[in-house]
Specification:
The structure holds 2 protein chains of 2 kinds.
Chain A (H helix, E strand, L loop, with lengths): L4 H31 L5 H4 L1 H22 L6 H6 L1 H16 L2 H4 L3 H29 L4
Chain B lengths: L2 H14 L13 H9 L7 H16 L3 H7 L2
The chains are: A mainly alpha, B mainly alpha.
């Protein structure tokens, strides 16, 4: 397996958020159909549905490109993702008018950012690393 | 069973089993074997356990962060 390494890197990166999205969709359907909330729940899904998986795939491609030049470990590379995602998520939440649903106060963001970095570090180190190894790009 | 039946049965068996044309292996198996031997089992470092514990403590202390984190996935 020596061809299209960047495509394989993208696929390995996209896998984890895509699987998480399935569960998010299930929760979304239950909430939408059973509870019928009065806030626009569809708008909340825009960011995780459209942007997050693509960013994960692209970020894994960046890792593959940088890895050839003595780069940082995969976990640390993945831990950087929230530094880009959190401002983007805040912007999207404000733009679509659902920041009040996520209760995105400064305290939540300040506490959530290091927690997100830890979660991302662990997920990238073990899960994305496993997928990279599986697809022959580790 | 007469000769005619035997011939018919042999023909049927031959038609049912595909002929073995290419018996050679599709490629060299040794590189795959080396990769398998080089593969290390997943080991969790103590540092990662500490990080996971910190994250769990953070989620317990601030449960309102959980939707915000899930939104990033």
């Amino acid at each position: 397996m020596t061809t299209h390494p960047y495509l394989r890197a993208y696929m390995a990166g996209v896998t984890v958020p895509s699987i998480v999205l399935l569960f998010a969709f299930a929760v979304f359907l239950v909430v939408r159909l059973a509870c019928n909330p009065d806030f626009p729940i569809e708008r909340v899904l825009v960011f995780p549905l459209a942007l997050v998986p693509a960013l994960w795939g692209a970020w894994n491609m960046v890792y593959l490109a940088m890895h050839k030049r003595r780069y940082m470990p995969l976990g640390c590379h993945g831990g950087l993702v929230p530094l880009f995602l959190v401002p983007g998520a805040l912007l999207v939440a404000r733009a679509f008018g659902f920041d009040y649903i996520l209760a995105a106060t400064w305290l939540i963001v300040l506490v959530g950012l290091p927690l997100a970095v830890i979660v991302y570090y662990l997920v990238w180190k073990y899960v994305v690393g496993f997928l990279n190894e599986l697809l022959g790009i580790a | 069973m007469n000769d005619h039946d035997r011939e018919k049965l042999a023909a049927l068996l031959k038609s049912a089993l595909p002929p073995m044309r290419d018996r050679a292996l599709p490629g060299d198996l040794w590189p795959k074997m080396l990769r398998r031997l080089d593969r290390r089992p997943v080991r969790f470092a103590w540092f990662d356990f500490a990080l996971a514990g910190m994250a769990a403590a953070g989620f317990i202390a601030f449960p309102s962060v959980i939707p915000w984190i899930l939104f990033q996935f």
